[in-house]
Amino acid sequence: MTDSPSATAGPAPRSLPRGGRRPAWALLAAFVFADAYAMLRLLWATGSRWGYTACDRTVEHTAGQAVTGCGASGVEVLPFWSGWGAVALCAVLVAVTALGVARPGRVVAAGLWGCAAVLVALSFPGHLVFEFAAAAGHPTDWRDLANRVVLLAGGLLVAAAAVAAVPRAQGVRRPAGVRPAPRWLRAWAYAGCALPLLGWTMPHTLWLLGVPLGIPARMLAEVREDINVPMGLALCGLPALGGLLTLGLAARWGQEFPRWVPLVGRRRVPRLLALVPAGVVSVALTSYGVIGLSMIATALVDGQTTWAGLASAWAVTGTEVLFLAWGVALGVATLGYHRLARAR
């Protein structure tokens, strides 16, 4: 009498547990960053002014103001959100990253993602990329730029900790291959490509060529005087390149490297290679657009500008709307790519 298959096959295999181990370096590094930055903010709140700047990043400063941080050493009491308010927020960051080290999981990962988004948004209130481009030949508050670079690096580090905090299944291979992007994802990716090309690169190129599209002649002369050729190429070319790369979120080459790419041709594109830059840029653009529009609204309420003044420079005013729309389109396309790659 032959044995039944159940008798010879042995015990049924157990289901694979979730909670595969991930490298803990990101969680530990995020915790160290949170502690170090909280200590710096505590020093500022208690009287130290090392690395602190009192300059208003929304206005242009002289060389002497930029060097001294607008007299930062003479500031006796910091504003609440620059002093003890920032210390309280840092304490929240320290607590969340400590939970990530002690008890990683999906709930803690959600908190880490929130902290990462706040850090990245705070690093771009004056649009960090453009301020670096404008730093050539202009007085620059390097203390402010260094602080916001630290915030950006910390945001990326906390985002890596959020990824590391989520358990994953072990021994499970997801099917390879390229999944076609749904129509809505393609639409948002096309919008994320067209907005910077038509709303930023085209008008700035015309301005540099001397065409006063949407700005007064006086403002056009100031733009052409302040922007040299390398800066103009960067200001016009980088947003266009970013817009073209957005198409990859809905294209085959965003999931699989093209055959002609050396060494990695036909290999799968790592998700984070697309998600991290696109996510950072979308948060930065959205926050910059919101801040810019709020500044315009404040200027209207305070009487510093009028609707007629905004209309005379409609292209400049529309740039704030452009950043907000561009950030939203890129953010939605990034979420769609995340869902597409995860399903793959």
Provide structural commentary:
The chain contains 13 helices and two strands; from the N terminus they run H-E-H-H-H-H-H-H-E-H-H-H-H-H-H. It is mostly helical and 344 residues long. It folds into two domains: 21-169, no CATH class; 183-343, no CATH class. The longest helix is centred in the last third of the chain and has 32 residues, at 271-302. It is flat and about 55 Å long. The two termini are 46 Å apart.
Strand order of the largest sheet: 1-2
Helix content: 55-70%
Structural class: mainly alpha
pLDDT average, as an integer? 81
Q: Give Rg in angstroms.
A: 25 Å
Strand content: under 5%
- N- to C-terminal distance: 46 Å
Order of helices and strands: HEHHHHHHEHHHHHH
Number of discrete helical segments: 13
What's the story with the biggest beta sheet?
2 strands, antiparallel
General shape: flat
User: Uncertain regions: pLDDT < 50 for 5+ in a row?
Assistant: 1-23, 170-175
Number of domains: 2
Count the beta strands.
Answer: 2
